[in-house]
Amino acid sequence: MLLSLKGTTPPAILALADGTVYIGNSIGAAGSTVGEVVFNTSMTGYQEILTDPSYCQQIVTLTYPHIGNYGVNPEDVESNKVHAAGLIIKDLPLVASNFRKTQTLTEYLVAEGTVAIANIDTRQLTRQLRTQGAQNGCIMALAAGETVTKEAIEKAVAAAKGAPSMAGLDLAKVVSSASSYAWTEAEWTLGQGYGQQTAPKFHVVAYDFGVKKNILRMLAERGCKVTVVPAQTSAAEVLKLNPNGIFLSNGPGDPEPCDYAIAAAKELIETGTPTFGICLGHQIMALASGAKTFKMKFGHHGANHPVKDLDSGRVSITSQNHGFAVDEKSLPANLRPTHVSLFDGTLQGLERTDKPAFCFQGHPEASPGPHDIGYLFDRFITEMEKKAG
Ligand SMILES: NC(=O)CC[C@H](N)C(=O)O
């Protein structure tokens, strides 16, 4: 039985920059938020999605209709806070049930100060974003006792129209950690929780452009001592750490204005140190190699995207979260496509033909999503082994 929330929580307004208005119920903190509205098709993993730093300044609508069913817990986080600018869902079930649950989704959203709206026709909203492209929006969550007025709606539409455009925004340095730190936590197993890396074989320096924790865990699990460095660390400082491998992380915003990261990646790749990039890191490696990126119409956000490995022919179902992509037509001779999206044919993987550097547009670390393409982490280890001789 599904119990409706309607009428039990304060109203909230969702306004899009084109003037479309939806009315729903507040299921998070009271107040207003703006951002680029994007849809994600994952059926589970709302906590990993909310805490993925790549969603900074984006409001996420989840196409799966029931969100919150299993509550939240302190372990399933991809960073130390909610980064998504807001959340839009269809139905918040009144019962959250899971043995790992420590809070309900609403308790968590309120504690994190995240504005969220439920009872929205997310099918209609998604069709709109898919047809017209991603656009900016505003969620205005009213306080208890307040009602939706014409003035409030006008204010929400104006806020949506006034939100900054994602194209041209450098957000990697905004979310990056302020200082370097060592990472030792390994992957999670049932009954044991997260493991610990104690006997590392390789030293990986990981650029934090908004890194997801599960990437670091998968590196630690595979025998890497990981040093995470801030986004604006120079190549010279990284080389002083004597790394066996360089990792370029995922992150929010437009890759093109991240000139500091592009310059550092270019220099580091030239040294012949094995380099692996994920998502924003993939885009930065491509830009550092002379390719170009572009803003997609509505991007890829979900955990069900088929991607083809062009060398083996193998198809993997992958986790995705990006609004920009590398332009295939702009590839220089030493940058070879290794993977393509079977949804729209856009580039998903690249490798340098002259250096041990490769990258992937989707998320091999999953979290949430399938682990089909986790083999890319093993490839990074193999490149470091080859280099070590
Ligand atoms: N997950 C990511 O790293 C996203 C990369 C970039 N911000 C994009 O939207 O394309």
Automatic annotation (TrEMBL):
**What is its pathway?**
Amino-acid biosynthesis; L-arginine biosynthesis; carbamoyl phosphate from bicarbonate: step 1/1; Pyrimidine metabolism; UMP biosynthesis via de novo pathway; (S)-dihydroorotate from bicarbonate: step 1/3
Name all Carbamoyl-phosphate synthase small subunit N-terminal domain ranges: 10-140
Q: PROSITE patterns, from UniProt?
A: GATASE_TYPE_1
**Pfam families linked to this entry:** CPSase_sm_chain (PF00988), GATase (PF00117)
Q: Which UniProt keywords apply?
A: Amino-acid biosynthesis, Arginine biosynthesis, ATP-binding, Glutamine amidotransferase, Ligase, Nucleotide-binding, Pyrimidine biosynthesis
What is the uppermost EC class here?
ligase
Q: Does the keyword Secreted apply?
A: no
Q: Which residues bind L-glutamine?
A: 54, 251, 253, 280, 283, 321, 323-324
In terms of InterPro entries, this protein maps to: Anth_synth/Amidotransfase, CarbamoylP_synth_ssu, CarbamoylP_synth_ssu_N, CarbP_synth_ssu_N_sf, Class_I_gatase-like, CPSase_GATase1, GATASE
What EC identifiers does the entry list?
Answer: 6.3.5.5
Q: Where is the active site?
A: 279 (nucleophile), 363, 365
Q: Which reaction does it catalyse?
A: L-glutamine + H2O = L-glutamate + NH4(+); hydrogencarbonate + L-glutamine + 2 ATP + H2O = carbamoyl phosphate + L-glutamate + 2 ADP + phosphate + 2 H(+)
Secretion signal span: none
Q: Where is this region: CPSase?
A: 1-202
**Highest taxon of the source?**
Bacteria
One example of the protein's molecular function in GO is: carbamoyl-phosphate synthase (glutamine-hydrolyzing) activity
Record's NCBIfam families? CPSaseIIsmall (TIGR01368), PRK12838.1 (NF009475)
Please explain the role this protein plays, according to its UniProt record: Small subunit of the glutamine-dependent carbamoyl phosphate synthetase (CPSase). CPSase catalyzes the formation of carbamoyl phosphate from the ammonia moiety of glutamine, carbonate, and phosphate donated by ATP, constituting the first step of 2 biosynthetic pathways, one leading to arginine and/or urea and the other to pyrimidine nucleotides. The small subunit (glutamine amidotransferase) binds and cleaves glutamine to supply the large subunit with the substrate ammonia.
**Subunit info?**
Composed of two chains; the small (or glutamine) chain promotes the hydrolysis of glutamine to ammonia, which is used by the large (or ammonia) chain to synthesize carbamoyl phosphate. Tetramer of heterodimers (alpha,beta)4.
Which family does the similarity line name? Belongs to the CarA family.
The name of this protein is Carbamoyl phosphate synthase small chain
